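QA checklist item 7 of 12: single-chain prediction sanity check.
[x] sequence parsed
[x] length recorded as 245
[x] structure emitted
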Amino acid sequence: MIAFRWVMSILFIVQMYLAMAVIGLLFFPFAMLSRDMAFRACHLFCAWVIFTARIFCGIRSDIRGTPPTDEVVIAAKHQSFFDIILIFHAVPRGKFVMKRELLYTPILGQYALKIGCVPVNRGKRGAAIAKMKADVARRASDPGQLIIYPQGTRVAPGAVKPYKVGTGLLYDQLDQPCVPVATNVGLFWPKRSLLRTPGTAVVEFLPRIEPGLSVGNFMRRLEREVEDHSNRLMAEAGFTAPPAA
C-alpha cells in the first residue's frame, strides 16, 4: 500500500508541474496584457491541483469560515504548498508577500508580479521590513487580498516557530481588517517529502481582526488564534503534537 502511495504521489507531482507549465504558457500572452487573465490562469491551475490531489492522492479539501472578498490582510499558517493553493483559490484576487527569489522563476515570477505580489528580501531584518512596507504601499492600487505568512516560512505540524512583527506593521500601516487563517494541510502534504497521504486538508478562515489594535496586541491575538485553531484542526485529523522540549 505504501509503495502504491509513493507511485501515485510522484505521478501527481509530475502532472502538477506539467499542468503549471502548460497553463502558464497558454495564458501567458493574455495574462501579461490583463491582470484579470492572470488571475484566471492562476485560479485554473489551483482548481486543477485541488482536483488531481483528490484523484491521485486521496486528499480532499475543506474550506471553512468565510473567505474575504474585500480589501483585507490575510495572515495564514503555512505548512506546505497546498495551503497556498487552497487560500488563493478561495479568494477572488489574492496577492502574496513572497520571497524575492521566486521572481526569477520562469513564467511564475511574471505571473506573481502581474497579480500584484510583493517580493521581499529575507536578509537584513530592518531593511527588509522597510522595503516590504514601501512595496506594499506602492502596490496598494492593485485591489485584492494581501496574503502573508507571519512565520515567514513553512512550519511542519508540531514544530514551533515565532511570528514575525512584519505582519503587525502591515496591519498598522494599511489600516485594514486582518483575517487569520488556520490549517492542517501539512499532515497530508508534508513540508519536505514527496509522499502525499489521504485525508481532509482544511483551511479555515477565522473571524477578522478589525483595525485599531496596537502592533503588540495584534500580534499576540493573531498568534494565539491561528495556533489554537490550527492545533484543533490537526487534532481533529488525529495528530498529536510532540511534547515541548
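[x] summary fact logged: The two ends are 34 Å apart (CA to CA).
[ ] second reviewer sign-off
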